[in-house]
Amino acid sequence: MRRIMKFWCAALALAFAMPAQAQWSDDPKENTQLLDKNYWNVETLPTSDGGFYMLTVSPDGSINRVTPILHYFDKDGIAQWDNPVKCEIDSTMTWTKVMSHLYVDRDDNAIVIGQSLCEKERENYTIWKIDKTGKQLWGEAGVDPHDGNCPTDQFNAAIRVTQMEAGNYIFVWMGDETVLQNISNDGKLQWGEGKRIAAGAYPHVVDAGDGDILLVYESSGLNVRRIDFDGNTIWDVKAFGGQLNPQIPSWTYVHVYPVDDPKGRGVLISYYGFVGDEFYPYISYVKADGTHAFPDADAGLRICYSENWGMSPSLAYDKTNKAIYAIFQERAPGSQFTQRFVVQKISEGGELLWGNEGKELIPLKERTTGYEAVAMGPDGNVLFGFMENVGQGIAANDPIHIKAAYMKPNGDFIWDEEIKSICAFGDTKTKGGTKYNLTILPYANEQWICIWEDCRVDGSMDGVMFGQNLYRDGSMGPDKPDIPDDTTAVEDLRTVASALRVMPNPVRKEARIAYTALQEEDVRIDLMAQNGMKVLNVYNGRMQAGENTVTWQRPALLTPGMYLLQLTAGDKVTVAKVLLQ
Prior knowledge:
The chain is mainly beta and 581 residues long. Helix content is 4%, strand content 47%. It contains 2 helices and 39 strands. The strands form 10 sheets. Strands 21, 22, 23, 24 and 25 form a 5-stranded antiparallel sheet that branches. The protein is globular.
């Protein structure tokens, strides 16, 4: 009897120790630990059912041998494999330049890429295809994109991949030249050792449709090249002709987002550009036919005109309403640690819809911030996430909280508390909780999933992966709330449509001033200095109900700078900021 009692006590203890089937926490001071130890170079990508893959790398028996390891979780944050899939690779000393990469194809298979040394100081890649059951579809040895040869390049780096409409995959990486490889759906090499083309550094690749690809690369700025199936260049345009950061590899801060347009698929690109010693957030949009969507073409579109310096923005594209959302960090000039976060909404034509300075998410003050992310929600609403130091200064071991804001298309906050802590572990008394690398997965199953590296487990600088789900009412946890459908978005869009708009903005020579009148009325538009003094009259006349557009030729002698455009209709006054260059 005593042995039976001991057995049941042990069984109950084990049952209570096991994680519940719905693992998400509803407490921002707890969250959900996803992995049991720290790994290097973690990448996370979603599957179509709301689950996600997580690719990690870790020493395997020796620090000189680094192995890619793939994990798979469902929408509740529960690991689906008893053991993660270890991709065996001979990786002598490649831990000094870890070059793994994760991609998820249309069938929810993970494409895992690992790098090793085939000879002293000469790198090569191996590629695996793994499905959601953990089966290695291209075999345990994977596929060698170099066709069994050790590349003669001085280095091979920054590999990227896209799946084509026919189901094959195009891989691209930077060697002495840009190298492209075509691998069939079943893992067969189509281009021998690969095709080589003369292009710049740190390439990105996007399926352009019709068997073509778009190649985005650094070359005295940024270029976009359309290439056909045979490797021939169809067009090559300069996406940004300004100065990038010459001290940092562009793959760390240039991000590429595919965008479908009526003529095929183009690309949005986010980065930060320099004007002298000052740096600002920029985006470019090159359409499928090689034309620029934004008015200043290869000058790029600067998306904030505050007095601060701005970093590379993270973007989300609203396909339904044809709008681009951005979040980026700003720093006070001359102060590395006086920082804030700003969000911006941009039209497909390059109009800054939330003003020339965007909307401030958290104020400018001395402390560190970083690792921002943005994801669309239902009905054009948008979620912004970021990390903020909540300690007393800028120490590396100060506590970091993860926060989020959910906003309407007109920029209004949706949650009553406006900014919500989704991870509040660590405070100024207990310390702990340094965090890195925030990812927000796309909205699915009525929730977002936020994932990050968290140093709370052992207090070291090497973090363990944690996660947290988040519903659109701001709640968290395993129990999905009964949330009513979003119905305010249509009204918000009407409000935006009736606002005063200036296109393009900034203005160089000519601008179109758009205003939607609710009824026929007399309208006066004046250009004002920031101190409220009138500079000149732009328009004085009668407008019809509906959309009205005024074309304004900017006087050449007007001093460049920030102004206010003031529209008066009856007792209603509408003001918009306008920057003259």
